[in-house]
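Q: Got a minute? One more chain.
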Amino acid sequence: MQRPGLLPTRENFELGLNALYRFAAFAAIMAKQEQWAVEQEYRRVTIVHREADVEPRVRTSGGQEVRYLTSTVRANGRRIALAEIIIGPNQDAEEARQRLNRLLGDCGYEIGQMEYPEITASKVVPWSPAVLTANV
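A: Always. Here it is, folded:
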């Protein structure tokens, strides 16, 4: 399959693959099983250039390896302004709030400053993964 005027060069194949990776990243952001909709989470997909010096971290969840990149809360030595952090419905809200305050403090955030987020508890009803998988 070839279009007139488009040569099958390595560069053109790489450009095509790059476009497909971007489509896949977009689909990954939107791909979520309906049973997890109650989480109301945001997803972020990062496309890394092959020559970039980036090494993902690895953790184990449910017996499977999960690769991830950490999120930077400082850009060019400045704090990123966060509007709000919502504590998930299955968390002990007060304990999570204390952990978040410590974490934010360790990253240079101070309560009362413009960049310090409002920390709120989710209004979503707590749920159990066992109940969700039983309904699938």
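A: The chain has a mean pLDDT of 78.
Q: Perfect, thanks.
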